[in-house]
Write a structure and sequence with these properties.
420 residues; elongated; formyl-coa transferase, domain 3; Rossmann fold; 14% strand; 19 helices; alpha/beta
């Protein structure tokens, strides 16, 4: 694999933590969420990610979310650990430079609409000519082939076609409001996760010692399929029984009790007592031990069939106690439970803080920022947040001169010509 050295600050305590992907170089031709999320995960674990953006405003996601000091706070995380360069890929000179970068990369991740890179002269054949063993990860709405491959799609479309949006709602008949969005761009993020997993699988196949298979591989990740793959038993249940899984609100359709219950101070508390021993402990804690012996609630299937009456009993109990008290009692009884966290709760959580999942990071544009930590955790080689999301074109000179051996005059000419 290609090796690179980056002289950049790391989080205090992480200065020696290169990460398990140190030495891997990834070229990102991505925008919005899915491909950049994939490369952020790889960068967190040490990969050298070179992100190509159009000159000027850069990636449109830089304009998304709440603003802090005139900049997107989200970008601080979304663009972290990436070397950001600019290239107008519609210009022949930019295409040439992109191919030279591909030649020095182990993997390329993109999420243009199918066929778009071909029109820019960056077809798979051109990329393979630049580097035959390049791993290419393509993320799109519907995939690279099939009757719907050319349809426009964002994450929300993937969530709808993949069956998730139908399920994120209250039970039928409870409301006429539209199905509720999960609250984040989960379709894009799940596709990005699959792309990252696929990149590593393809690199393993290419580079594993003794396999003798040095071919590059192309990955085809569809937003729709990424979500569809998460639907648990919904498809086999439909195929075998003809049943269409319906929204269940805050409950789990196949287990009870497992729902959100309102406390006396108006906080939603999640209680998951959906096994027989857990339910007995919950019934005792509620002062209602007879519920565990009631035939309507003996065994999970019986509890699911009588969920509404069972939830009414639990709601009547939780309404008598404040959330903090409920959490203390349920923890003491060893019943899985918690209030529904806001992001403020997450930021203050002692477990998240202890494990480095809430970190203070110095952003060159925004000052001290809170960032989520790195997942997965690799204790012996944990990676690092080496820098926050940089400005547009922040690494042009570094990459063009350091990797492509362009002179200062050549870089100036590229800028004057609008190439970068």
């Amino acid at each position: 694999m290609t090796t690179t050295t980056i002289d950049s600050p790391t989080r205090p305590g992480d200065t020696a933590a290169a990460g398990p992907l140190s030495g891997l170089r990834v070229l990102e031709l991505g925008h919005f969420v899915a491909a950049p999320f994939c490369t952020r995960l790889l960068g967190d674990l040490g990969a050298d990610v070179i992100k190509v953006e159009p000159p000027g405003a850069g990636d449109p996601v830089r304009q998304w979310g709440a603003r802090h000091q005139g900049h997107s706070a989200w970008w601080s995380v979304h663009g972290r650990n990436k070397r950001c360069i600019t290239l107008d890929l519609k210009k022949p000179r930019a295409k040439e430079l992109a191919l030279r970068l591909a030649a020095q990369s182990d993997a390329l991740v993109e999420n243009f609409r199918p066929g778009q890179l071909d029109k820019l002269g960056l077809s798979e054949a051109a990329l393979r000519e630049a580097r035959p063993d390049l791993v290419i990860a393509r993320v799109s709405g519907y995939g690279q082939d099939g009757p719907q491959r050319d349809r426009a799609a964002f994450g929300v479309i993937g969530e709808a076609v993949g069956g998730l949006r139908h399920l994120t709602n209250h039970p039928p008949g409870n409301t006429d409001l539209p199905p509720v969005r999960v609250g984040i761009s989960i379709g894009d993020s799940v596709a990005g996760l699959y792309a990252a997993f696929g990149v590593m699988a393809a690199l393993w196949r290419r580079d594993a010692a003794g396999r003798g298979d040095q071919r590059g591989r192309t990955l085809d990740v569809a937003l729709t399929e990424s979500i569809f793959s998460l639907l648990e038993g919904a498809l086999p249940e439909y195929g075998a029984l003809g049943t269409v899984r319906q929204p269940a609100g805050g409950a789990i359709a196949t287990a009870a009790p497992s729902n959100a219950y309102r406390s006396r101070d108006g906080v939603w508390v999640l209680i998951a007592a959906n096994s027989d021993p857990l339910f007995r402990r919950l019934a005792d804690l509620m002062g209602r031990p007879e519920l565990a012996g009631d035939p309507r609630y003996q065994g999970n299937q019986a509890r699911v069939a009588n969920r509404d009456t069972l939830d009414a009993h639990i709601n009547a109990w939780t309404a008598q106690h404040e959330a903090a008290e409920l959490e203390r009692m349920l923890e003491a009884a060893d019943v899985p439970a918690t209030r529904a966290y806001t992001v403020a709760d997450c930021a203050a959580d002692a477990q998240f803080r202890h494990r480095g999942m809430v970190r203070e990071v110095e952003d060159a544009q925004l000052g001290r920022m809170l960032h989520p930590g790195i997942v997965p955790q690799v204790p012996d080689d944990p990676g690092a947040i080496r820098w926050a999301g940089p400005s547009v074109g922040a690494h042009n000179e570094e990459v063009f001169s350091g990797l492509l051996n362009l002179s200062a005059d050549e870089i100036t000419a590229l800028r004057q010509e609008g190439v970068c």
